[in-house]
Design goal:
HTH_TetR (chains A, B), 9 helices, transcription (chains A, B), homodimer, DNA-binding, Tetracycline Repressor, domain 2, about 190 residues, mainly alpha
DNA sequence: CATCTAATATGATGATCGTCATTTCATTGC
DNA sequence: GCAATGAAATGACGATCATCATATTAGATG
């Protein structure tokens, strides 16, 4: 091999990370292969020696960004009270709302992913279930086990939905209230 | 005037309704002007005598589809108990999950709308607030007025998020549990 | 230092994108 | 039935899309 071993691997990683950001920012259909490669400091030509298709890159990017989201949420929770309210406060923060490119992949891409290849959705599903578990672990142990799981799903759905609405709305004050409403709701859903 | 009066208006309406469906099905970037016009039984050429741009059509389509969603939810609620649980059951039904093209525009387009023109987001915002009011009117009057509004936002966010996740996931059983979790959560959030 | 080859760049493919100028056609008023 | 006119069709614009064949170049190996 002529290039240092691991060179191609690290280049691939750079492409995935660039894609991971841009897909969240502009949507999977909102950015082309050429722009993605340029963001990684390359030209578009070499793309297909790294990935079979744009869809394959999306799959890798979903895996990367969902893992990032998982790590970030874990970090956030640990930093503050390590309960659902802490998670909600971190998730529904202005900074998260204003920076989708480094934020939750589910919030940025969920409706689009529903229209993508089964492989891509499968990757998403696995990571999403890890997110559910993250919340579930912070629900009161008094809740029946069967309910804990469904409750964690609903809490995440509420957080994700609130973030999306806060981003879509054209009214700063309303956006703020949506975030607050989401935090309160998550707290309520984490009780009883 | 050479064509029957109202002819152009009804054609425009046909285009909006075709767009209203296709945008929800394939996303705003997932379908082109030519396909939209074809769906309305026309060719692409005449498009710009009806709309200034594709964005203008999106704005009209968002207004149309959000209004449809509002009407449908009102109808659904009235049909069954006329409470939040009835709304949730209707919203998180399999039929809704499996037919985004005739379903909630917010669930189909929210993340994408965040990236669109202020005018488009303003139209969305107005209709979204009507959706909030629809839920708010079905919350127990014992709740403090200030909380009612935020609560209604969170309930809708939870419904919308649950629907999106149920659509994105590649696991039928999980999809089902997400829908159930959303219904239960909405019911809990409508109490106390 | 020269050679070899993997990694990237160049450049082109046909398709589709949004947009628009121009032409054709349908319908109504005379 | 003819002329006037508004609506829709034709066809093209340059840009960008995903994809790929070919050329170049970087850098470790001998």
């Amino acid at each position: 091999m002529r290039y240092a071993k691991g060179h191609k691997e690290s280049t691939r990683e750079r492409i995935v990370q660039a894609a991971s950001r841009r897909f969240r920012q502009d949507g999977a259909e909102g950015v082309g292969v050429a722009a993605l490669m340029a963001e990684a400091g390359l030209t578009h030509g070499g793309f297909y020696s790294h990935f079979d298709s744009k869809e394959a890159l999306l799959r890798a990017a979903v895996e990367d960004s969902m893992t990032q989201t998982l790590d970030e949420l874990t970090r956030l929770a640990k930093r503050y009270g390590d309960d659902v309210t802490a998670l909600a406060r971190g998730y529904l923060h202005h900074q998260h709302r204003d920076h989708p490119e480094s934020g939750c992949a589910a919030a940025a891409l969920a409706p689009e992913l529903a229209r993508h290849a089964p492989d891509t959705r499968a990757v998403f599903t696995v990571r999403l279930q890890a997110l559910f578990k993250l919340i579930e672990a912070r629900l009161p142990p008094t809740l029946p086990a069967a309910q804990r799981r469904e409750r964690s799903m609903a809490i995440f759905a509420a957080l994700m939905g609130s973030l999306q609405l806060a981003r879509a709305v054209d009214d700063a004050a309303l956006s703020e209230r949506i975030l607050q409403g989401g935090i309160h709701a998550a707290t309520i859903l984490a009780l009883k």
